[in-house]
Amino acid sequence: MVLIPYLLVAGYGLLIALRDETNDAEPARRSRDLVVAGIATLYVLFMIYAGGLKFLLLSSALYVPGTLLYVQVRREQKERVFVGAEWIVLAAAVIGCLFGIYGIVSGDIVI
User: Fold this and answer.
1) Alpha-carbon gap, residue 2 to 85, rounded angstroms
2) Which value, to the nearest 10 degrees, does the dihedral of the CA atoms of residues 94, 96, 102, 107 take?
3) Residue 58 CB coordination number (10 Å)
4) What SS3 class is residue 17?
5) d(CA 43, CA 47)
6) pTM, two decimal places
7) Radius of gyration for the alpha carbons in the chain, expressed in angstroms and rounded
8) How far is CA 97 from CA 10, 26, 41, 59, 64, in A?
9) Below-50 pLDDT ranges, the chain
10) Tens digits of per-residue pLDDT, 33-43?
11) DSSP string of 59-103?
12) How far apart are CA 56 and CA 49, in angstroms?
């Protein structure tokens, strides 16, 4: 369950390092940040791969219902729920959720 948030954090760290938003005047620090964020992103991707598709689908089957609570709170605060690429992430989670539920129902995924 925790690997997806780790991937998002590592990917965001990589994005920040690529945009050079973390450094004032230290080019060596940017290189270090790129290396650390790159290694973190690759490591988490490997861990997701090593965990297997079964657990990725099962975790998305838990994330999507949790997203409904997020939507409810955002609407209560009269804020936009999703913006831009967040819709793509939501679509991927919903598709994974549907495949996970189908796998459980069909017996292809055994808990």
Assistant:
1) 21
2) -150
3) 21
4) helix
5) 6
6) 0.76
7) 17
8) 23, 43, 23, 8, 7
9) none
10) 899 999 999 99
11) HHHHHHHHHHHHHHHHHHTT--S--TTHHHHHHHHHHHHHHHHHH
12) 9
